Amino acid sequence: MPIDPALAIGADLGEVSFSWTASDVLLYHLALGAGSDPTNPAELRYAYERDLHVLPTFATVAANLRSVDAPAVRMPGIEIDLAKVVHGAQAVTVHRPIPVEGKAVGHTRVVDVLDKGKAAVVVSETSVAGSDGTPLWTAQSRIFARGEGGFGGRRGDSEKVERPDREPDATIDTPTLPQQALLYRLCGDRNPLHADPEFARGAGFDAPILHGLCTYGMVAKAVTDAVLDGDVTRAQSFSARFAGVVFPGETLRTRVWQDGKRLLLATNTVERDAPALADAVLITT
């Protein structure tokens, strides 16, 4: 089915009510590798409920934690084969610290559909408020659909982030586990691309790849710990473009440049020196 931007752009994808508990937060953090040093207080604040801190990136999974089905890319004017889809970019802005447990309502709409020639980019935005109506977070997601371009839409502006012409202020290495994707898929993304070798080969990859949102969350945690002294409340927003794949078991190397309240980030895999996250910005309070 070809993409119809006239139908897609502005489409209301409805509301969803959801809730989460401390156990959900703990699962998410463990799926990001938290608790690797189980006696370290800095790790236990993510992996033990007694003084639990919630990473802002929990917003990316909170509504889908109970999902056990592979996602489908179907919405007004859009129907795309899952094998053609990869996550293109993600942004989260928290309006207040995410509570350890809560109930919320999320409202999603399609804000744009971009024509990149050989691919299409679908941009959706979700606004989430607590049960009392207080805004909690806003998330924007971009999915990249190979072979779905050429429908006559606009290409969109460049969102390249210019970094300072100097050495980074910090460099952080973060190992991933061979089973990292199998852990992370328990947070609600059951796309077989991250677990099934045959499906991954059919999609053009040598092996199952790590979820982009897992890389996104791992980098957010690593930078929060290394640069913000582990204070999750100082992280106000985080945006990044998924620039390449990560295979479970590889090490992420993140370079950080401080620019006022902005932390400019670039993440590569150590083993292949291949880009993972680009044009990434973490804004602090």
Quaternary structure state of the chains depicted: single chain
Supply the number of helical segments. 6
What is the element string, with H for helices and E for strands?
HEHHEEEEEEEHHHEEEE
Total E-strand runs: 12
Taking pLDDT < 50 over at least 5 consecutive residues as the criterion, the unreliable ranges are none
Q: Provide the domain count.
A: 1
The mean pLDDT is 93
CATH topology value: Thiol Ester Dehydrase, Chain A
Percent strand: 35-45%
Cα radius of gyration in angstroms: 18 Å
GO molecular function: (3S)-3-hydroxyacyl-CoA dehydrogenase (NAD+) activity; 17-beta-hydroxysteroid dehydrogenase (NAD+) activity; enoyl-CoA hydratase activity
Domain Peroxisomal multifunctional enzyme type 2-like N-terminal: 18-147
Biased composition (Basic and acidic residues): 154-169
Region (Disordered): 148-173
Question: How would you portray this structure in words?
Answer:
The protein has 285 residues and is of the alpha+beta class. The protein has a single domain (5-284), classed as Thiol Ester Dehydrase, Chain A. Helices cover 17% and strands 36% of the residues. The chain has helices spanning 5-8, 22-31, 41-47, 180-184, 197-202, 212-227; strands at 12-20, 73-75, 78-80, 85-94, 102-115, 119-130, 135-146, 170-175, 235-242, 251-259, 262-269, 275-284. The strands form two sheets. It has a ten-stranded antiparallel beta sheet. The mean pLDDT is 93. Residues 18-147 form the Peroxisomal multifunctional enzyme type 2-like N-terminal domain.
